[in-house]
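May I ask for a sample protein chain and its fold as tokens?
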Amino acid sequence: PYAPGHAQYTRNMAVAASKSDAAVLLIDASSGIKAQTKRHLSILSLMKVDRLIVAVNKMDLVGFKEQRLDEIRKETSRAIESIYDHSCKYEFVPISSKKGDNVVKQSRNMPWYGGKTVLESLESMELDNLSSSIFCLPVQFVAREAGRRLYAGTVLSGSLSAGDEITVLPSAVRTCVTNLTVAGNNSGEAEEGDPVMLELADDIDISRGDKIVKSANDLRHGDTLRCRFFWFAGNPMAAGDIYELKFLSRKVRATVKQIKARLDFDLLVQTPATCLGQNEIGFGSVTLSAEHYCLPFAESKELGSFLVVDMGTGDTVGLGTITGVEKASQLYPYE
């Protein structure tokens, strides 16, 4: 997905990064790193986007000089190393998008550059396999056919075969898969990304938003989530506020338990806070109206993230990633 660079479009950047495994980061060769560049790098780091192509654009405005690329490379490398708290692979490509220099074809204006073009870098990029081996099927709808109940959804991760035992969450009821179709075909086996329809051995009360897994122990559960928040709305987020959180196909009402800190994009440190304003990133916790089964974002982007919805207007006002799951009665330290 494409994400505009301006601060008012931070929400676009956060949503795009949450679904990405790699990113192309544009830097203006004539001006170098800006505050918004650090903002983007911070979001990419928090969203575990660990493969970057840094495209240094507008090289024509600096006379296609190699010295300018070296200056930006040093400055940007320092920023990446200070922002990322985990491994990140990155490479620099000097470009001029005005005439396509080093975008698709090698530039004659920069004979000193012997690296790949942006397209070549994208085509040769090796991504880490972040897919989970844990089987998980979020139920999207329940159908009735010839007196049978069929449960449909898209396999989020892992694989499933007819005859496998499964557990339905949050009820934790166990049963067996008697029939499995993928896109209408009786293949008998489904993998990540497959649209499936399941028939189960027992007639169980399953609703949209439930999860079908092989074992309840595969996921963590609780009614209190430690989170990172990416706040989009003009109205601030503060302790005591009530929202609806959307986890894939499930919706749960939640109360903000605490806002502990916000990220300072200039100093690149967490500073104490009690609320979050528009386009700010913060750290805190929420208490859910019902227990939820999930994984931390570091283990699964899909099972570890959610949208924050204003219950009055229905607008999406924020995005969250889960860093920990606890019971409301338990005390825990913040990261």
Q: What stands out?
A: The chain has four helices and 21 strands. Residues 331-335 have pLDDT under 50 and may be disordered. The first strand starts at residue 23 and ends at 28.
